[in-house]
Design goal:
Length: about 550
């Protein structure tokens, strides 16, 4: 441990007092230039660069460094904690957008990549919270840190707990409001902190409300998720980003005064420690005598880089792949509107954002008839924005499947011809088949199956009258975030006759297991062996 600590300070502490991801064996490092940061080269997240995780590593390390300084009472250990705290504060000072926490800095000491994240921001908050409550900061430092932490937390709350990026085309990256273990302890901790920092009782009330709020997928409350501790969907128990939520859970346990809540948080900490211990065997396989050095040429990634233009780049990419079916994902909750707030004041907040409460929005859209005209205008605006890309409209679906909401579906059917709707997702995942394919979350799957079976039954005749095509079955609804390779290998041999749709959320971070499933050679071979034809909606 002492050797690792010495190596950290010999090689991985940047001149600006944040921790680097990589460095040469003698501490040599080539930081991105200001031009590379501003161009998002090799990517807007700085993934793969030496300065990728300064806020995350610094915040996590600072909590331990403070414990070390308190135990040893050595001035050199206290100074190290002070330096890391100063580096974290600098990462919060370089952005133009309030609440933004930079990952690291370029070679000029101020320019930075535009995208932060929840896994950068939460350790930043936790680390400085621990420093704030230690005996190390001066009175002036304490006031400055308290003001900055309060500002960041307030910005997060005002943004619906989404994490802001610093400049276009990037908007937000990460969301603490989601009800799973990655989000639950962090959101509760931030609400608790705001109450303590501001003295306003409303934050304590919101803390208890959030603790009781249930996940729409699992039915579990945030408090229940905290008590269960660290859980991962993938088969492996290894996830280094899970430490951010465990740290938040630890601080919740330290701050909370109600015995019943403290006991639940302590249960979660114990279960998290048990899960983490299962990965120790993997760590023991590491060969400390290996002579292989680090790859210092991170710019090798730049050979494949090109400017990232967000939507424009996606459209250009789609045009180069004409067999790709691109549809419109109609968004009327949990997202940004196309129209300005002045035109749809009943649908969005001051930032032009739809409600992040799907159930509440659904009730309002159904019962408040005065909103129907605003919904129609926003729907037409989203279709117009899609037409402006010049891409053929493969199909229409909706965020959280809200396109099947009775009011929204009626608006779509009334204007199907001028909108150009010829194909639409009829979300209905066969429940009996899903029971044979998957396990767990029974009541959540049953509830989703019943709701969407009824919505689909109501919509099917209207689609037939309008000549709008749809697959006979849709798979993925009852496997939210679990469309992995094992599920696909069980599903494919049991597909019903006719056309079926598989939907998932493939990505390289939150849902990597779903990405891996779609590119799996074993799945590809199974598709070929079973004679399954891969089609688009346009091929129906």
């Amino acid at each position: 441990m002492e050797h690792a600590h010495a190596e950290l300070w010999r090689r991985f502490i940047d001149r600006d007092q944040f921790i680097l991801d990589s460095a040469g064996l003698s501490g040599e490092v080539s930081l991105p230039t200001a031009e590379e940061c501003l161009a998002s080269n090799p990517n807007g997240l700085s993934w793969g660069c030496p300065n990728e995780d300064g806020a995350m590593f610094g915040g996590l390390y600072l909590t331990g460094a403070l414990q070390r300084a308190a135990r040893t009472r050595r001035e050199k250990d206290s100074q190290k904690a002070r330096k890391i705290a100063a580096g974290l504060m600098k990462l919060a000072s370089v952005g133009e957008r309030p609440g933004f926490i930079a990952r690291g800095l370029s070679d000029d000491g101020s320019t930075h990549y535009a995208i932060g994240s929840n896994d950068q921001t939460s350790p930043w908050i936790c680390g400085l919270w621990s420093y704030l409550h230690s005996d190390l900061p001066t009175a002036a430092e304490r006031d400055e840190i308290k003001a900055k932490v309060t500002e960041v937390l307030q910005v997060l709350a005002d943004a619906g707990w989404r994490v802001p990026c610093d400049r276009p085309p990037f908007d937000f990256r990460g969301d603490f409001g989601r009800t799973h273990f990655e989000g639950a302890p962090r959101l509760l901790l931030f609400l608790k902190m705001l109450g303590l920092l501001t003295g306003e009782e409303t934050w304590e009330e919101r803390y208890h409300q959030a603790a009781r709020q249930q996940s729409l997928n699992s039915g579990k409350t945030r408090l229940g998720l905290c008590a269960e501790g660290m859980v991962f969907e993938q088969p492996t128990p290894q996830s280094w980003t899970g430490s951010c939520s465990v740290l938040a859970l630890r601080q919740l346990w330290e701050i909370e005064t109600e015995p019943a809540l403290r006991d639940q948080y302590l249960d979660g900490l114990r279960r998290s420690a048990d899960l983490a211990s299962r990965s120790l065997a993997t760590a023991l396989k590491y060969d400390n005598t290996a002579e292989m050095g680090p790859c210092e040429d991170w710019r090798v990634m730049s050979r494949l880089w090109r400017p990232q233009n967000n939507v424009a780049e996606a459209v250009a990419l789609a045009r180069t792949h004409p067999r790709l079916g691109v549809g419109l994902h109609l968004t009327l909750v949990c997202g940004s509107a196309v129209l300005p707030r002045a035109e749809i004041p009943g649908l969005v907040d001051a930032r032009g954002e739809f409600s992040r409460n799907p159930a509440g929005a659904g009730f309002r859209y159904f019962f408040r008839r005065r909103l129907h005209g605003q919904l129609r205008r926003e729907i037409h605006a989203q279709f117009a924005k899609f037409r402006a890309t010049g891409l053929p409209l493969d199909h229409v679906n909706g965020h959280l499947h809200l396109h099947l909401h009775p009011t929204i579906f009626r608006l779509l059917m009334d204007d199907a011809a001028p909108l150009g709707i010829q194909r639409l997702r009829l979300t209905s995942d066969p429940f009996r088949l899903n029971l044979r394919l998957a396990s767990g979350r029974f009541f959540s799957r049953l509830g989703h199956a019943v709701i969407f079976h009824r919505l689909a039954a109501r919509a099917r005749p209207a689609l037939a009258r309008s000549g709008i095509k749809h697959p006979r079955a849709v798979f993925g609804l009852l496997q939210n975030a679990r469309v992995d390779e094992a599920y696909l290998q069980r599903l494919l041999p049991q597909l019903p006759a006719g056309e079926s749709e598989l939907y998932s959320h493939p990505s390289l971070d939150d849902f990597k297991q779903e990405f891996d499933a779609l590119v799996s050679p074993r799945v590809r071979e199974q598709v070929k062996r079973l004679g399954i034809e891969l089609i688009r909606y346009q091929d129906l």
